[in-house]
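Consider the record:
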Amino acid sequence: MEIIFKSSWVRKDNPCCKIERILKVNNTQRTIQRFEDCRDAVKARALSSTRKNPRCAADGNELLRFHCTTLTCSLGSRGSSTLCGSIPGCGICTIIRHGFQGKECKGVRTTASSGRAHDSLLGCTDERRAMLVCRVIAGRVKRVAEDAPPPEEDGASSAAAGSYDSVAGYAGIYSNLEELSVFNPRAILPCFVVIYKALES
């Protein structure tokens, strides 16, 4: 997992980060079932659609994606693997306990690279951060042109209202690495948490 995390940081000219700990997420059976239900729904739609999409029909178009969030507790420090009670203050513990809540209309942003996920956490000045490595049922993806602006909430909502499950948006210097907004938060299954400190260039 460390190799996957570091190799997708992209900006090879800059120092990457110092990984403190990598933790495996023990999802509840209910969470896993919801994820599998999302996959089954995507597969069923693909099989019944006149627009053939072999990947969606096979596995729901599952991808491995990154999502960076805040970390305000001692998770990962000195062997700690206990979630804190600072909800919603601590982003990582909130997501692991309750999933990606309250973001259905806008979509949950995931990225194909750890570096892009790190950069997308705007306004965060915390030295320690948490990166989720997730399985994602992308389903049918609406692609946005590279020269178009990032998808806004209205755009995501209109796409969600149609036959798309996610939208691949503009990613700036990472334009060859898709930034994917997934409409159904249950279609994202956190598998690992990378606790790290970003190093300044």
The first helix runs from residue 2 to 7. Confidence is low (pLDDT under 50) at residues 147-161. The two ends are 23 Å apart (CA to CA). The CA atoms of residues 67 and 110 lie 5 Å apart.
